[in-house]
Amino acid sequence: MIDVDASSRLDSGETQPTESKKRKSKVSAVRARSQARRCVLQALYQWQLTEQSFSEILAQFIERDEYKTAESAYFHEVLSGAIEHYQALSVRVTEFADRPWEQMDPIERAVLLIGMYELIHRLDVPYRVVVNEAVELTKQFGATDGFKYINALLDRAARDIRAGERKHSRN
Length: 171
Known about the structure:
77% helix; 0% strand
């Protein structure tokens, strides 16, 4: 049986989203969020070194090309959350670290602030995504083997903070 309405929609150029378009849209959203994390890393690094305010850093990043392809709401939330909860997040990191916070590289600290913020405050983001994104950022911006440290630390943190999710994902 021919769906007359469907063929008239196709004739008029109206189409339903295909699986391919949905997948491309999802990939685009994932890239935008990854780009937001990358911008947050750079902003947190700048914040640690210059002690500029959130609004000063935000004003600078809005002008950057890489910000234009980032998920701006996510950038804003994670950056403001990491700065606002800086003390609590750094304390949580040291619970799983083998060295004091002050002895960590500024890139490692920025990546860990993002990762810890997401583990604690963004329960909609699977812990594996949090850890993987942190590892990728560290591979790109951190010291040669820094990603191994980040991976181990955030994995230990996820075991504690997201124990239920980890247990559920293994079954």
